[in-house]
Design brief:
This is Glycogen debranching enzyme. With 705 residues, the chain is an alpha+beta fold. The chain has 17 helices and 30 strands. Helix 7 runs parallel beside helix 10 and helix 12 crosses helix 14. The termini are far apart.
């Protein structure tokens, strides 16, 4: 019987789990479920049977604030010798560490007699690479050994890459039966008695492992502290709307669920299940959206991407000196080169986004020593942009796949059919995307601000001059009066792709658009053919390749909408930004646990129906979860200014506004380097007011209406 609830997701570092409402994995019902470690599925089946039957589900809750799944279950009829149905309650708690999955099973009998309960744990591990689970075929695989050892069950896979991958199942209680796919024991339960059984699935077993109960308790304490530390380190954002607060809490928790520790802080991995690894573009955009509430994410992302910046030219990985990473994968297929993604650089936008985030982070945090330490990497990134532009006939930043199995399209819309002409023909040759030119503009301005702060004004002024010239050339080449918007791209023959797309909205985000063009783009994006009631579609329904069920040609992506909303607010179109925020809030309210997925289908919104799900969307997805925070920055009109040579920081609030249903919004503990401020936005009859509820001595506030 299919599980009526959506799958539950847990993650810790390089381990993530996709579990059903029982806290189990049943591959017959959900093929992508499992527990994955370092890019490989280490558990493909996990089932508990009581008297040979699966328990009934009473309820399941993912405690997102602490990264724990709790399932309440009960027994089926145990037969003549067993307990009557619904007399045994099982509370099952699941938590992850970086190298293990642990469960506590609490059994309580509500029967009137002692029962001897046979319990069987079924286990399998197919050790499939994440790309195999996704559908990639392999000509050859390694070999798996299954064996019982000292009351535990071991599964060992000898990979073709020479690495042994291990899963060990052990329990806290003695077992009576160990097979190659199960462990069995009998538990005696007295009436009203609770007995606990602890289960460990270990992927890096120690020579002398922790006891199962101690291991579980330590893991539970560590994961609770992990999420508490996240909340302590970030600004608190609370409204007077309980549903909105639930969306905020879920979104914040999901970003931290996906975050892994790196040398300079945290890196939000892109999404579960398909993208649980560092992605350059995703990490940079997620960190930028979260910058208002948690600047330390930006520090972690910048540090990691600087350390993994391309140092050689390697066509097999679309790698060029100075380029910023697209993705980095673990797993057997990546190690063997069966996919080129062990370290892959096929993204044209990660490098300018890296520079943009560095500039914004410095302004927000005043972390000059850290940014000064990144100067060689920032200079190399700028040099790559200059070299790439110089190599194109029109001077625009372009991409062209070189790696045999790399990505055909290398912007954020990277599916094969996403970049096309109005008649549906795919764009060929080297491609200049409209939003990438906007990012190149933003990168110059951001790096100029860094150089000004670090005492290199002449170079900074040179970059600002370049940005101004690029802005002029961009508008002349990309503006398309026939669609009243920017062309999606210019192909290798110099022909514009005159297609109405959401990409044009990103041009507002960086400020490359003229005021008049921004107004036209706003009208086009918010027209009923583009805005479907939940958000802006990736492609306007008038376009030939429009398909609301496609990945990039008519779907709705929350992060895309957040960047559009931030751009609209930059040009003063706050009512449109509010419309986007409201649509996403209502979408979040209509999906389980307020968890916005990577994308949803672009069908027009209908009364009494929620958004239509895209079947293989990642959920959670970092930049979807972070979207609400980017949009809050937009509607509060918040900008941070630091004058060169001054230790003071100015918080500017341009025409702040609130969406329907919110009358109060408190932002407390907003950190600006060594300074801090507490703000309250409140609705009055005709306006939104701002109260500064506390600030440190070096903060000035300027409210502009």
């Amino acid at each position: 019987m299919p599980d009526p609830l959506p799958p539950f997701v847990l993650k810790n570092e390089e381990t993530f789990a996709i579990l059903d409402s029982r806290g189990e994995i049943c591959p017959d019902l959900q093929q992508e479920a499992g527990i994955f470690h370092r890019g490989t599925r280490h558990v493909s089946r996990l089932e508990v049977l009581l008297w040979g039957r699966a328990p009934l589900v009473l309820s399941s809750t993912e405690l997102g604030a602490v990264g724990v799944l709790v399932s309440h279950l009960s027994n089926n009829d145990g037969g003549p010798e067993g307990a009557a149905a619904m007399t045994i309650h099982l509370e099952r708690s699941t938590v992850l560490t970086a190298t293990a999955c642990l469960q506590q099973l609490c059994f309580t009998s509500y029967g009137d007699r002692r029962v001897a309960m046979p319990l069987t744990l079924r286990l399998d591990a197919d050790f499939r690479d994440i790309f195999e689970v996704r559908g990639y075929a392999r000509a050859e695989r390694g070999r798996t050994i299954r064996r019982g050892v000292d009351g535990s069950l071991e599964l060992i896979y000898g990979g073709l890459d020479g690495e042994d991958r291990v899963t060990v199942l052990r329990l806290s209680d003695p077992v009576q039966d160990v097979g190659v796919e199960h462990i069995g024991l009998e538990m005696t339960l007295e009436p009203r008695q609770t007995r606990r059984l602890f289960l460990v699935l270990d992927f890096h077993p120690l020579a002398v492992p922790l006891g199962a109960e101690d291991h579980f308790n330590a893991a539970m304490a560590a994961t609770i502290e992990r999420f508490r530390d996240a909340r302590r380190s970030a600004a608190s954002v609370v409204s007077d709307n309980p549903a909105f607060n639930s969306w905020l809490m879920r979104s914040f928790s999901d970003v931290h669920l996906l975050a892994s520790q790196v040398e300079d802080g945290l890196y939000p991995y892109a999404g579960v299940p398909w993208f649980s690894c560092p992605f350059g573009r995703d990490g940079l955009i997620t960190a930028r959206q979260m910058l208002m509430v948690e600047p330390r994410l930006a520090r972690g992302v910048l540090g990691y991407l600087a350390s993994s910046q391309a140092a050689i030219d390697d066509p097999a990985h679309d790698e060029e000196v100075g380029k910023i990473l697209h993705e980095s994968r673990l797993g057997e297929m990546a190690a063997l080169g069966e996919v080129p993604f062990s370290r892959y650089y096929g993204a044209v936008d990660s490098t300018p986004l890296f520079l943009m985030l560095a500039g914004d982070y410095l302004c927000r945090s005043d972390d000059r020593d850290f940014i000064a330490g990144l100067l060689p990497e920032l200079e190399a990134a700028m040099a790559w942009i200059h070299k790439a532009e110089a190599g194109s006939a029109d001077g625009f930043l372009r991409y062209l796949r070189v790696a045999e199995n790399g990505l055909r399209n290398q912007g954020w819309k990277d599916s094969d059919d996403s970049i096309h002409h109005a008649d549906g023909r795919l764009a060929e040759g080297s491609i200049a995307l409209c939003e990438v030119q906007a990012y190149a503009y933003g990168a110059r301005r951001a790096f100029a601000s860094i150089l000004h702060r670090l005492g290199r004004p002449a170079e900074a002024e040179g970059l600002l001059e370049e940005a101004a010239a690029l802005r002029h050339r961009f508008h002349r080449a990309f503006w398309s009066p026939s669609i009243d918007s920017y062309a999606l791209a210019i192909d290798g023959d110099g022909q514009p792709c005159r297609v109405r797309s959401s990409n044009a909205g990103h041009c507002l985000w960086t400020g490359i658009a003229s005021t008049e063009a921004a107004a036209a783009v706003a009208r086009q994006l918010m027209a009923p053919t583009s805005f479907n009631g939940w958000g802006v579609r990736t492609l306007d329904e008038r376009e030939s390749r429009y398909n609301p069920m496609s990945y990039h040609n008519g779907s709705v992506w929350p992060h895309d909408n957040a960047l559009i909303g931030m751009g609209l607010a930059r040009y003063g179109h706050r009512s449109e930004t509010l419309q986007i925020l409201t649509g996403l809030f209502e979408a979040a309210s209509a999906v389980p646990m307020f968890q916005l997925p990577e994308l949803f289908c672009g069908f027009q919104r209908r009364e009494e129906e929620g958004p239509t799900f895209y079947p293989v969307a990642c959920s959670p997805q970092a930049w979807a979860s972070a979207s609400v925070f980017g949009l809050l920055e937009a509607i509060t009109g918040m900008a941070i200014e630091r004058e060169h040579g001054s230790s003071r920081v100015q918080v500017r609030l341009h025409n702040p506004c609130l969406p329907r249903g919110l009358n109060l919004l408190d932002i407390n503990g907003l950190r600006l380097g060594d300074e801090e401020i507490n703000l309250q936005f409140h609705r009055s009859d005709h306006d939104v007011g701002v109260m500064v509820r506390g600030r440190s001595p070096g903060v000035d506030v300027l409210i502009m209406k």
